[in-house]
Amino acid sequence: MRMRIWLSGAAGAAALLAAAVALPLTASGGGLDQQNRARSLAPLGSEPQCEAYSGLPARWGSDPQAGMVHLGAGAFVFGSKFGYEDERPRGDGKTRVRGFWIDQTDVTNAQFSSFVAATGYVSDAERQGGGAVFHKPTLEELNARDLAWWSWVAGASWRHPAGPGSSLEGIGNQPVTMVTQADALAYARWLGRDLPSEAEWEYAGKAGHDGAELDTAPRDHHGRPTANYWQGVFPLVNNNEDGHIGLAPVGCYAANDFKLYDMVGNAWEWTKDIYSGSHQVHSNGDTAAVAPASRRHDTPMVIKGGSFLCSRDYCVRYRASSREQQEADLPASHIGFRTILRDS
To answer: Which residues form the Sulfatase-modifying factor enzyme-like domain (predicted)?
Structure first.
């Protein structure tokens, strides 16, 4: 069951905390545990709350686990029998993971800005001189070239996610994008953390569930979308049923049962695992195809969770079991990340 919390401020945080510690552990013994007691969890889960969020979690800069929840070790079914071929479980799929802390939300522009201000880090997109940026094409553009919704935009970077002229003003609460796997790892290591493995990410994304409902479009019992993904005919018509065209601030929709926001939709998320298995074509179009011809091709890595571009007629990867490949050093406007801290 997903719960939507409508309170804000300290009252909202207290309500979220009470809800978190009251949730039962999963049958395998994992999930939210007592290490979350008395922690300030993010007061998110509705449009007013996500819009008001600064992008920096409570006690940022003073708490080593700021913005995180702890998940106890547990087992889950890794993969899906209902999705694409490369999602099929091996054997019965039962996989066990150790306990870890994980970010409640994608890393935000505000958090990544804090990292850069502290370290002087220069991202891969800034060094490469650009990145792959999505735009809604016209019919003329679609007829003129393949993958017309992707363009390599010179000057695009995490600071300028749509290219020169764009900025982070007013979007500190959105997921940072235009970051490569190396950028994500640099941020994680600054905090003494890491990127999740694919198995760790999926354990967190499934939040103790293993039913067929995990492979359906995320909607509530009224039929309303409960994540930011594409409704309509991709890439020309977005019906905007979910309330967002493009990226949304983090935490606009109810958390999953592990109190994690946006594990499905909004932005794909980097993992630390190399992509293997039965290759599936990028259903949102291979962003490498629009990169400069002189650019070398890097190792394909697993990304998880889908993005605002996933639709039922083109991507169908708005699911916790979904997986896709992205070259490790290719920045794109629909890919972000979250971090974990493993138990010692």
So the answer is: 66-340
Q: In the numeric block, which tokens belong to residue 25?
A: 């552990």
Q: What structural domains does the chain harbor? A: 9-342 (3.90.1580.10)
Q: Which residues contact 274 (CB under 8 A, 6 or more apart)?
A: 299, 300, 301, 302
pLDDT score of 42: 87
pLDDT category at 29 given cuts 50, 70, 90 is low
- Helices 109-119 and 181-190: crossing angle in degrees, nearest 10, is 70
- What torsion, rounded to 10 degrees, do the Cα atoms 263, 265, 270, 272 define? 40
- The string of pLDDT tens digits covering residues 54-71 is 999 999 999 999 999 999
The span from the CA of 136 to the CA of 312, in Å, is: 17
pLDDT in the model for residue 164: 97
DSSP line for 229-288: ---SSTTT----TTS-SS---TT-S---TTS---SSSSSEEEEEEEP-SS----TT--GG
Contact 40, 12 (CB under 8 A): no
Specify the higher pLDDT residue, 21 or 101.
101
Which residues make Cβ contacts (< 8 Å) with residue 130, sequence separation at least 6?
A: 152, 153, 154, 155, 156, 157, 163, 292
Distance between CA atoms of residues 204 and 100, nearest Å: 10
Give the whole-angstrom CA distance, residue 25 versus residue 82. Answer: 26
- In this prediction, residue 314 has a pLDDT band, given cuts at 50, 70 and 90, of confident
Quick one: tokens of 102?
A: 């994980």
DSSP, collapsed to helix, strand or coil, labels residue 290 as: helix
**Mean pLDDT of the 95-102 span:** 97
Cα–Cα dist 45/3, whole Å: 9
d(CA 107, CA 123): 15
Mean pLDDT for the chain overall: 89
Structure tokens at 261: 């926001």
Token reading at 291: 């990169």
pLDDT at 227 over 90: yes
